[in-house]
Design goal:
Layout (H helix, E strand, L loop, with lengths): L11 H12 L3 H8 L9 H15 L6 E7 L10 E10 L2 E11 L7 H16 L5 H10 L3 H18 L6
Parallel strand pairs: 1-3
Antiparallel strand pairs: 2-3
């Protein structure tokens, strides 16, 4: 089951069910039934606005996000869907941090639920640096279906690996 590298943390039963869908060439079909169309946030400006709206709604008191953009240099192969970076600089007598969120360009053409999951994940890093219980609690606070969307996104990445075609173009 080497083709299931994105699902390696899931149970053997789940992996077997996914393998059956792959063998029947139905994995893409299942995803298309669940998520029929891609989002329309194609530009960096639209993505920035979307992330800012999420931040305003759920993380009002968090530090500001200075930049949000799609990044063609992020490769999912390295297990990165997006990146949150914090650059600290001394200005006057104070330490100032600039937060940036970058999302892999391949996610310009996916359902909004997948993009939301990535945005919520990266926003959660503003408050919680580690992938611990508090981090995932914050993610599910911002998006109650976070874990389902993450699983479905992993299914999509598996489908891309096995079939090599995008579903929402």
């Amino acid at each position: 089951m080497s083709s299931l590298k994105y699902l390696s943390a899931y149970s053997e039963q789940t992996q077997q069910q996914v393998s059956q869908l792959i063998a029947q060439n139905k994995l893409g079909e299942v995803l298309l039934k669940r998520y029929s169309k891609p989002h329309d946030l194609r530009t960096d400006r639209a993505l920035y606005q979307y992330v800012q709206e999420l931040k305003t709604e759920y993380l009002r008191n968090a530090e500001p996000i200075n930049k949000v953009e799609y990044d063609s240099k992020i490769h999912v192969i390295n297990h990165a869907l997006g990146l949150h970076t914090s650059i600290s600089r001394v200005q006057g007598g104070k330490l100032k941090a600039k937060h940036e969120i970058r999302v892999a360009t391949m996610f310009k053409e996916v359902p909004l639920e997948f993009l939301r999951m990535i945005a919520v994940h990266e926003l959660a890093h503003v408050k919680e640096k580690q992938h611990d219980k508090a981090f995932y609690k914050l993610c599910t606070y911002m998006e109650p279906n976070y874990h389902q969307y993450e699983f479905d996104l992993r299914l999509y990445l598996t489908q891309l690996d096995t079939e090599g075609r995008k579903l929402w173009t």
